[in-house]
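Section 3.1: Structural characterization of target chains.
Under the original work plan, the team committed to producing a structural model for every single-chain target entering the pipeline before any wet-lab resources were allocated. The record below documents one such target. The sequence was received from the expression subgroup and is listed exactly as submitted; it comprises 96 residues.
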Amino acid sequence: MHIGVGRVVLRLPENQSLKGKRRVVKSLCGRIRSRFNVSVAEIEGNDIWQVATIGFSCTSNSARHAGETVQTVLAFIRANRGEYEVEEEESETLGF
């Protein structure tokens, strides 16, 4: 079993409230979840309204597939910037 995990820190420079942040984060997480069939959630900084940290993971029987999925999700996040800027990203593939 192989698990691909990713973490992305997003900056929302134009955001003025937690409600606005939730709208952006919920929309992005929903698009990622439906398009790539991965688990995704905001994992840090829930009370900071101009920074969002998104974590996601996938499970596969192939390390290559898990790694490719994570990289594809990261590319999707970078390509769909509109209301956010990508400040930091990490990825890893774990094997068991």
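Residues 2-95 form a domain with the Alpha-Beta Plaits fold (CATH 3.30.70.1120).
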